[in-house]
Design brief:
The protein has a 3-stranded antiparallel sheet with strand order 1-3-2. 49% of the residues lie in helices and 12% in strands. With 133 residues, the protein is an alpha+beta fold. The chain has a single domain, classed as Orthogonal Bundle (Arc Repressor Mutant, subunit A). The chain is globular. A hairpin with a 2-residue loop joins strand 2 and strand 3. The chain has helices at residues 14-20, 29-54, 60-70, 83-90, 94-106, and strands spanning 79-81, 110-116, 119-124. InterPro entries: WH-like_DNA-bd_sf (IPR036388), WH_DNA-bd_sf (IPR036390).
Length: 133
């Protein structure tokens, strides 16, 4: 015997929609600090992106490398980068990736931190001002 349809069936995945709506506990002081930090980071990303995109000395290759790395790198901590992986991901030759990274370092957009095996660790320059690249 089957149960009658009451019309109150739950759709698959409907429970996940509840998580998309913010609740009041999301606005606790610790979460507000996190939101402010994220807003500051977005502002820094906007400033650095504007500086890179308006600098006439930045080559197309350097812009491609920056665009790819800016999604992975942080202002406050270093991230290891293998130039060979970067070249493969962007479909570029390794010498061109190397030249692009050197240009971004010269412009102080990328800060080289240290070596970790074959990878070089970089971070974005948090001190980059809007008009300076």
């Amino acid at each position: 015997m089957t149960e009658p349809n009451t019309g109150s069936q739950t759709l698959p995945g409907a429970a996940g929609l509840r998580g998309a709506m913010p609740n009041h506990s999301d606005y606790r002081p610790s979460n507000l600090t996190t939101l402010r930090t994220e807003a500051t980071m977005l502002h820094h990303h906007d400033v650095i992106s504007r500086a890179v995109s308006t600098d006439r000395e930045i080559t197309l290759e350097a812009l491609r490398v920056f665009t790819y790395l800016s999604r992975r790198l942080h202002f406050d901590r270093s991230v290891p980068v293998l130039q060979s992986e970067l070249a493969d991901a962007l479909g570029m030759q390794r010498p061109n990736v190397n030249r692009a990274i050197k240009l971004l370092e010269t412009k102080q957009i990328l800060l080289r931190e240290s070596k970790l095996g074959r990878a070089i660790t970089f971070r974005l320059n948090p001190g980059l001002e809007g008009g300076r690249a």
